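I have been asked to look over a protein record a colleague put together. What it holds is a sequence and that sequence's fold in token form. Please read both lines and tell me whether the tokens look consistent with the sequence. I do not need a full report, just your reasoning and any doubts. This is what I was given:
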Amino acid sequence: MRFWMILLALCASVSAHAALPIQHWVLANGAKVYFVENHDLPMLDVSMDFPAGTAAEPASQGGVASLTRSLLSLGAGGLDDNQIARGLSDVGAVLGGRFDADRAGITLRTLSSPTERTVALEMLARMVQQPTFSDTVLAREKARVIAALKQAELQPESLAARAFQQTVFGSHPYARRDSGEIASVSRLTSADLRAFYRSHYAAQGAVIALIGDISRTDAERVAQQLTAALPPASQAANLVIPPVPALPQAVTRTIPFPAKQSQVLIGQPGVTRADPDYFALYVGNYVLGGGGFDSRLLNEVRQKRGLAYSAYSYFSPMRASGVFQMGLQTRVDQTQQAVQVVRDTLAEFVENGVSEAELTQAKNNIVGGFPLRIDSNKKILEYLAVIGFYDLPLNYLEAFPARIEAVTAAQIQAAFKRHVHSDRMVTVIVGGGTQ
């Protein structure tokens, strides 16, 4: 554990930030590789990410991206889903994944000993390079997705999230639901999934992240093994996600629902991963609504007025502008009061910014909690994948505490005024009232 003890000690120090030894190279086929060598545990964590999220799918084929990602592990290279699951279980390997509007990813954790590692990596290579997309499995998964979509129509949280996403993003691809819609999912065929796979799972767009008990030479072999038979780059779609348009005016949607509590979401398009104001917005949002009991929203909504148990805000940066969102749940008869408190708190925050005391507290908590962000191989693996997918600098983790410390109150105020328009917010209320 010496590696981790040293790493945590470095992270906790403002004067000596963590220097994670990230190695990076690009394969001849165009795949990008990010690797951290650590022999303290006999484990290897691997992830593969592709530009194959919801925003990449045709508008008429909602759900094809998510189902393509799901079916990678449900039949490949002559093995069915049960054989894949048993093969991984027999060597103690664990499969996982992630999916959002920008990317589709698959993860693997395995013992680093040659016997177990070889079997696990062979399984992963089959999944990403030889997916079957069986008609039978697709029919089963479509039925599961459709059942979940029908169930979501009965849940106020899901109704609010869906209406909010559609209203904030309008006709932009980010407005699409990850799982698709009932009608679009019903129409999907195995041929649709195969076409999407060929277009979006090329090596040229792949990001491979590895951390664990192997050498650089072994990491190079693993990366080559996992990408050698991916679809050729010539078939890869040249995915360009269009800019997210700004909201021209405030919009309020009220969706009736028979419940004692109203679900309230308020927000707008936010920022991209590459925005230079990211760190100022990150620190500022801690003060506004990201810092729990330290935040203004919770203080105004809960502590002072008892209108809700919780109130929050966050930015979700993406390749294009992700969402800026605030939210709470409150009694139906208190809904309008709670909404007004949130709006007023935001408007005051944008206009006047943060105090020096708030700024100091935010920085101390963010920097002090930073070691917990990288205290496991799994967490570091996710950062490696994000660094690779969004082309962040290799010293991103090392520089993070210093970037936080460098933020000033003036920068926060300027950044919020540039990006957050309190007079042009989407407000979605589910519960009570009329639509």
Observations:
- The chain has a mean pLDDT of 93.
- The domain at 21-235 is CATH 3.30.830.10 (Cytochrome Bc1 Complex; Chain A, domain 1).
- The first strand starts at residue 23 and ends at 26.
- The chain is about 45% helix and 15% strand.
